[in-house]
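Problem 3 from the worked examples.
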Amino acid sequence: NILGAAYKRLNQYDNALKSYRRSISINPSYFYAHYNLGNILKEVGKLSEAIESFEKALFLKPDYAKAQNNKALTLHELGELDAASVAFNKLILLNPDFAEAHNLGNVFQEQGLLEQAIEAYTTAISLNPDYSEAFNNLGNAFKERGEVEKAIEAYKKTLSIKHSNYDVTNNIGISLREYGNLEDAKKSYNKALTDS
């Protein structure tokens, strides 16, 4: 399992996959090897296999929040919104203080449930005030709801945590443009180009 982690850090995913599979063949009940295998499979785009690995890890250790989170994220990435929602809700029941569990907001947002999405992101932020991704997602939800000022405020909070981010700076530019502030939008777009 340690060898697999080393291969992952070196971006040698094939070797990492072999190493984790070997760990599992030696000790099939080692939940962490299943979890790590799932992470590599997700990384290389084998999403269905990744879900199977996360499920095996959860079978062996049902309270492992990170495996449940990654299963939910992978289901979301596959576009299986209902299954992702169930997985995120299970994670929230398992560990309500796990900020990442409230990425359920991404599912809500894709389903057009913006109020629930905003609530989920706000909960994530209250659990982890430095969770820049949640602020960015909150900004996206506000922007989609037409609340441009609140969107810009959330994006700026993201940048106060994570000082350089092309996507966030670009989102600010888009929001400023929609708000009619073309001069500041142009500045934001230029900053986005330097952040990339």
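Problem 4, a separate protein:
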Amino acid sequence: PHRLAHLINPNNPRHPADMTEETTGGPCGVAFTRERVERPCPQTPGVPKFPSVWLFGAAPIRRIRALTPDWRQPRTWYAGSQNNLYRSTNDGNGWELMWTFSGETVWAIEPNPDNDGLLALVTRVDEPDSPVKARVYISTDCGETVTKVTDFNYGIEDIGWLLRANLTILLLATDQGLYEFNLSHQRQKPPRLDVP
């Protein structure tokens, strides 16, 4: 396994015989995908061929309520699985857990088609007796950071973006009808919905 780990991680300068469990990881910032494991295996002496490889880690694997591509970011997808927001930057070959929303379920995700990095996210509050039924979050950096911009005391079914007269508008399809809010955002300031 150490020789295989060295082939998967060619940036590791240690000799395979000197490696331990702590030194067999991949380089920082590089996705650990199925292809990174499968590619070196046939060239590794003593490693038999195998039909498939499964890597387990942070990935949207059940109760996926929202899945959407980011049309402005190549090969980028977002997924909402239970209370987690995931992002893939390689068309789903690898996923990273971006945020966990305790006591909430990720319900809708919508990247903005006109602004790089702008993402709206809706969660449903899981506690039945809570006066808050849904929350709206905004990210201006592809999900690296999220800001809660408002709470709703009724459910939000879906969201969408609209560009009207150079205004960025977030549409909310709720249990009580369709709402629209102007989004005030600048790269250095937190986003804000103009809620009436």
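Solution to problem 4. Confidence is low (pLDDT under 50) at residues 1-16, 21-29. DSSP finds two helices and twelve strands in the chain.
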